[in-house]
Amino acid sequence: MPPSCTDDQIVYAVRDGRITPAQLDRMAQGMIDLVNKTRAAMSIDNYRFDVNAHDEVAHQAATESIVMLKNDDAILPLNAGPVANPSATPRKIAVIGEFARTPRYQGGGSSHITPTKMTSFLDTLAERGIKADFAPGFTLDLEPADPALESEAVETAKNADVVLMFLGLPEAAESEGFDRDTLDMPAKQIALLEQVAAANQNVVVVLSNGSVVSVAPWAKNAKGILESWLLGQSGGPALADVIFGQVSPSGKLAQSIPLDINDDPSMTNWPGEEGHVDYGEGVFVGYRYYDTYGKAVDYPFGYGLSYATFEIADVTAAKTGANTATVTATVTNTSDVDAAETVQVYVAPGKADVARPKHELKGFTKVFLKAGESKTVTIDLDERAFAYWSEKYNDWHVEAGEYAIEVGVSSRDIADTVAVALDGDGKTQPLTEWSTYGEWEADPFGAKIVAAVAAAGEAGELTKLPDNAMMRMFLNPMPINSLPTLLGEGGKKIAQFMVDEYAKLAK
What we know:
Blueprint: H1 7-15, H2 21-42, H3 51-65, E1 67-71, E2 93-96, H4 121-128, E3 133-135, H5 147-158, E4 162-168, H6 187-199, E5 203-208, E6 224-227, H7 235-243, E7 257-258, H8 287-292, E8 297-299, E9 310-321, E10 324-333, E11 339-348, E12 360-369, E13 374-381, E14 388-390, E15 395-397, E16 401-410, E17 413-422, H9 437-442, H10 444-458, H11 469-475, H12 483-487, H13 489-505
Parallel strand pairs: 2-3, 2-4, 4-5, 5-6
Antiparallel strand pairs: 1-6, 7-8, 9-10, 10-13, 11-12, 11-16, 14-15, 16-17
Helix pairs in contact: 3-7, 4-7, 5-6, 10-13
């Protein structure tokens, strides 16, 4: 289920078996527990929370959520005069886009809440004494473009050194209760961007959207791109901090940005038929699909630029238990800018009994480093980091073998790869005459019996199994009660021998 789902989505998920009644009970209990945690504070007479303190938490969260996708010619951060750099000449700034004045700070539908404060980007500029010319450029809807607004925006852009262009999805384009049928932003916004870029080549696009939008079709018209998502009530100050260099951007993409909506693995099943949609992509969701099948993307999962540069070195992985490990790495800020980097750890399984993604994010940590500073980070990987959900065992399962540990700064920017060998959890299922020959070979008891069959064959006590590649192709997926099909009466005796020996060993 998505992290924010509607009531009807939950109903369908329960109906289709994607959420069990027990899981639904746990979800409900979690909400009840959250309500109970507030009772002590809310029962205090004349209780008042600190609005400013809460707003500062929102400010910090918003600042760390902003992802810088592009920064050609180091167009960011901007100098805005005395606030940012007293010795530099201020740049004349144009701000274009209604989102700068009317921020889309939250999702649609039942996610609506009333903020304690609301500070737009324009509000922040006024509070900080930063001068800028503003033109709304478009209305926050899906109606056709307004030529008068477009003309005003282009003229405003012509007279600026740099343009901050606020684009994104209005609430009418994404909300609960309906599905998006495109990743594109409204056409009138893209058309305006093209006009503005023709008038001024120094454009920075600031995006406001709750879910991914296509970037590739219009990125050539912007030197800088900030993916700000829906930043909440203190998004204005957060954006100003990043744009004017008080803070280096440190957000990372929690979602790959594809080149085309048809590249998404869900498209073979969506929108479904006869009122039913299959989640046919299975475990190959998002980057797990793109990376496993080598699909080109615009920006990979985990991506995010900074005003600083970093280096990851001395990567090690040490086994700490039968199926656990710890990963260490040294991160160095190789620039003269204080900033934070997020070290990401991906686990890549070796040969597995089931289809598994190429790798999966299993741990990460954000580390703040002053200019030139180095720190060693440690990320522990528990048993679940190596496990997959097994339908056969109806439980999480860790297979024995070697796993690759990849450490990097995105799913496609891996600094180093090391390996760790795990024991596996030893889970087995009882073997029967319906178990395949391959399953017998893979089982600790079964492997001994297969060896005994081979020895008996050499001794002439049982029919000798042919040992060639073609025969192995038939044998491995075959239940042993089908051996008579290949070997006649001799196959029947081998199957009975295996079942009898297993009964002795498994006691």
